[in-house]
Amino acid sequence: MSNEHLTTVRKWYPRALTSIDTVNRLLDTIEKHLDLKPHQLMHADSMCCDDVNAIQYPPRAYEMLGPFHLGGLNGFPFAGITGMNAFAHHVPENGAVIIFYAPHIGITKDGTIGEISRIGQSGNSACCGAAKGALNKLLNNEIIDGNISSLDFQMNTIEQIFLHNKYRITAAKNQIFEATEVMYEAIDRRMEVLVKETSYPCKYVILAGAIFINGDKEMGSFCQYKRFDYINLETKERKSLLKEYYE
């Protein structure tokens, strides 16, 4: 991955790092401030089920236990309370749970946002496809308030999130960028509820919220953190490590 690619991504996400650097910093920061090694961390992610995320997932993340997958389309934690409780009871007692959550978005090597060039394809395709699809329906006034079907529950949920933020998204200079910000905030709020409703038999809960950025097939992936908090489960103290992460 060249510096040119990172420069292109940073035109949209100024604090983005490669996904490899992201994980290295994450684990180093946790070890420095919480004195925990990767094998003491039970890792869950809430990311889109898009295959490109599996292809571009940073290898060092597998030094942690897991991952337990909480997410569905565009990273919303559709596994819910049941998924969170199941994951919570897999954690080492002297360790921590770490929950990484992020909607994803594509950026091509020429700086086009909302699409990527995928392996084996000559043209670009949407990324996140679900977000682009919901955005198109929003712009065409095709989303019906409250319409959620069991046949397309996840997509319908994203459509409702966008509909409830219609003016903000449609008025934005770049609508897919803004829709991804809206999605992040919806995921962040839901994650707070799920964490509050779950009992964890360990020392800490670590929350890492971000935008996950997919590049073209030759670019790799990137990430910009928006939250990096830990909760001490004994004292209930909550502290952000975002400043320390970016130092």
Automatic annotation (TrEMBL):
Limiting CO2-inducible protein B/C beta carbonyic anhydrase domain: from which residue to which, for each copy? 19-231
Q: Which domain of life is it from?
A: Bacteria
What Pfam families does the record tag this protein with? Answer: LCIB_C_CA
What is the protein named? Limiting CO2-inducible protein B/C beta carbonyic anhydrase domain-containing protein
Which species expresses this protein natively?
A: Chitinophaga ginsengisegetis
List the taxonomic lineage: Bacteria, Pseudomonadati, Bacteroidota, Chitinophagia, Chitinophagales
